[in-house]
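Q: what does this look like with succinic acid bound?
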Amino acid sequence: MTTIKPFPIEVRGSASRPLGMSPARFLRDYWQKRPLLIRQAFADFQLPLQPDDLAGLACEPAALARLIVHDAKRDRWHVNSGPLSEADFAKTPDSDWTLLVQDVDKWDADVAGLLQHFSFLPSWRVDDIMVSYAEPGGGVGAHIDQYDVFLLQGLGQRHWAISDDPLAPKAFRHDVELKQLAHFEPTHEWLLEPGDMLYLPPGVPHDGAAFGGPCMTFSVGMRAPSQAELTGDLADFIAEHLPEELRYADPDLTPARATGEIDRAAIERLKSALPFAAALREDMLHDWFGRFITRYRNAQLAAPLEKPLNDTALARQLAGGAHLLRHPWSRMAWIRRKSGCTLYVSGQAYPATPALAQQLCEQRELALERIPDAIENSLLLALVNDGHLLPRKSRRRR
Ligand code: SIN
Ligand code: CO
């Protein structure tokens, strides 16, 4: 008895259903979830751009083009990121190379015309159509993309290997600038013909290489801003719209118990000044504010020692009565943790004990009256080596 798989990885398209199913079903079952190969998504596919036109476009100074040659014997990858010239193409070998041009839809109306088939997606989610030309064996190697992509085969055949194993290793090779995967074990392999289309959600390892002859692939790529990009831009946007006079304020201030401490009340005031920051994890908010406020309006920074001391050398100086003078530009503050505290100095964070952190904040010149413990020792050493504390022979009283 044959079992019907609920989500087949391979389907056949038709003129009325290029996805091999309704867009609603594709979005529900595959979009951002699992790969799908659609055989003959575009039957009788008419190539909207010839290889020579792509090469011509790649030589435009403003085009985003890369020529990638794989030295298969030594497994070396050569990437020429342009601007490309005819001479670059004249030097290409008979096989194992590819040309990739991004944003071809912006240059060529026929290529842009392909986008009408993707109108089931919000247009602002579509990034570009990248077009590649490759000679047999040519490709960019095994990698993952951070975006959904529809890989439409335009000319010739391409061998695709993918892994739909969610536990597939994602570490990069360090020797290649292409962010290729260090390990790749395909779970599926196919040979795509013109009109076939492979959909990949973000993060699926894949490797495509031209097979048998010249090959062109049209990649319709999506854009999904990272949370880091969204956050950075939102912060800039909010900042532009906030009036200067809205500032950190503390009309409820009471006399400080420990002058260097950023205490609970200060954090609560910060949360009311920044309502969206209240949603942050508390330790992240602390870590950001501690770094920010000790860097804020600092015109200069201490320079790290060119020759760092080791703990024996520092211990010897301290035992000889040396004082530790705070660098005039090193601003300090500390925040209590569940155990111990973090001392922030000019934007840097150091694990510390509240007693020593407070002493460092209070005293411009520190004379140790007791033997520091291990945390304190490594803190003092780090602060000395980062240039925030300068060991000085003690000044004798006359
Ligand atoms: C291609 O070489 O056309 C596609 C590259 C990719 O896998 O992102
Ligand atoms: Co890719």
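The mean pLDDT is 94. The domain at 10-222 is CATH 2.60.120.650 (Jelly Rolls).
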